[in-house]
Amino acid sequence: MKIWLTVAVMLFACLTVMAQKQKKKRVNRERTPQQELVYDNISYLPTIKSVQFYPVDQENALPVIELHSNDQLMLAFDDLRGDVRNYYFSMVHCDADWKPSRLSPLEYADGFNEERITDYAPSVNTLQPYTHYRVDFPTSNIKPKLAGNYLLSVYEDADKRRLIISRRFYVLAPLMTISPQLVPSVAVTKRHSNQKINLTVNTAGLTVNNPYQDIRILAMQNQRPDVQQWLTTPHFVNDNQLTYNDNKTFDFGGGNEFRYFDLRSLRLASGQVANIRLDSAAHAVLVTDENYREAVYASTFDENGKFFVRNQDKADADTESDYVWVTFSLVDEATTDGAVYVLGAFNNYVRDESNKMTYDVKTKTWQCTLLLKQGLYDYAYVHVDAAGTVDVSFSDGNHFETNNTYQILLYNRRPGTTWDELVGFVEISN
Q1: Which residue segments constitute the domains of the chain, with CATH numbers given?
Q2: Which end of the chain is more exposed for a tag (fewer CB within 10 A), N or C?
């Protein structure tokens, strides 16, 4: 009788422990909410930070890979929820305007169009816990088989509605060559402020029946989606050569060099950091920025808007770097209306409530605080007036001397097809 009683007690204890574990698991593990897919570079949750997406061994370059090559892209990100999630990724083929093309996955994907991310690691000794994820893509199981624009999306539990990230990338079939030239603006009033691109395109062996309709060219300044222009009409057509040098096209404001700060160390503040404070979280206040819209050009080194996760105090920047609440401020006595945002590659130049600044009338400064991972950051300020007009140079002015890099992408739609191929790509710097 005593033996049966002992067994019953032990069985009851085991069942109680199992029930508690299951209950605890249900409480701590809340699934990612459902989201609607946006065909853009989007982080759908505020807990998803430090997204990096670029060709392997070409840090922060535009995510372009060549069709039928061994090129790969590296996608990495942090999840500040700190647990381990089952994340999957897949891709969608898009046209030049980033609308889904009328193709099925069987037509544009070689292999399976879904795979799980298996490379992850928890943060180590950080005030802000997080889990770091990484995947190199394409893989042996999923790769594109057509040239053009693609959207890579990451989601939880193989449920494509539970999105956390979407990122644009480009697959190149180098069938045409682009010869660019960067010159001062032809307009006399803009010669000291603007940079103009002239292009010559060699269509090589690819037949183009109607270059005015079949060919489209996009130029981006420093990979910025908010500073880009389209070109559809060549100035001259001569056999297999197209010339784009109209005086009014591809004329860009030069802007100014990006502002930057160095947050690789939390032990010693760099010259751009006024002070660092550590308590339950890390805080850094940057030196207040001056407004340079009326100043003459001054050459300074920058990374054309990029950011780099780095750590001077720890060995592994990916998992040992902490997150810091960084406060930005910009002195501006002239612009007190509209909205001002702090932008950079770290947030894909997206303007939303998280990076919108507030104006302090007493100090006459715009201020904003963002949560950023330790590293090196370029940033800029953008103003949007009440009518929605965006001024990307309101605090820095425009200068022809500014060091910029332009990405030029050439699309072709062949007769009888319903999608755009990326058939040419080149970068040019001044």
Answers
A1: 42-172 (2.60.40), 177-254+404-429 (2.60.40.10), 259-391 (2.60.40)
A2: N
